[in-house]
Amino acid sequence: MAYDDQNIFAKILRGELPAIKVYEDDQVLAFMDIMPQADGHTLVIPKSPAETLMDLDPKAATYTIQIVQKVAKAIEKALDAKGIVLMQLSGAAAGQTVPHVHFHLIPSSVHDLGKHAVQMGDQEKIKALAEKIKAAL
Ligand code: 5GP
């Protein structure tokens, strides 16, 4: 499907919407999920326009997964996470709600995951968690 450049993450990438960022370089952005399924729920997105993992350029996918690992290590260290769920939903049929490819890092257990994208988080608490993750990068 054609990439919709009006999606929320495209707007965050262009600076048209705010985000609590933990990492950014010329190819990737990592920021806190606004409706976290657990404390420290972070999203990692490539900057290149792709809707799903299958649409993503393999080189961008390779680089993005390196940053996913880097941020996961920071979450582990900063929040003393005993386990991290890496989740990637490709396609509305899989439950994808924002049509720009992204990787969820959720410090939790698959058995304890809260509901997906339903409950707005406490933004001050999320900011404090982001500061801890940033300090551990
Ligand atoms: P998906 O369902 O596409 O795999 O995940 C989209 C994620 O984006 C959800 O976890 C949802 O909470 C999060 N999200 C939706 N809108 C926003 C937003 O405006 N800002 C941020 N930071 N996260 C968002």
From TrEMBL:
**Gene Ontology MF: a single term:** hydrolase activity
Give one GO biological process term.
nucleotide metabolic process
Q: InterPro entries, per this entry?
A: HINT (IPR039384), Histidine_triad_HIT (IPR001310), HIT-like (IPR011146), HIT-like_sf (IPR036265)
PROSITE patterns per the UniProt record, alphabetical: HIT_2
Entry keyword annotation includes Hydrolase: yes
Which residues are named in the active-site annotation?
102
The UniProt entry, under Gene3D superfamilies, shows: HIT-like
HIT domain ranges (all copies):
8-115
This protein's UniProt keywords: Hydrolase
**Which parts of the sequence form the motif Histidine triad motif?**
100-104
| Protein name (Swiss-Prot/TrEMBL) | HIT family hydrolase
Q: Which organism is it from?
A: Acinetobacter equi
Species classification = Bacteria, Pseudomonadati, Pseudomonadota, Gammaproteobacteria, Moraxellales
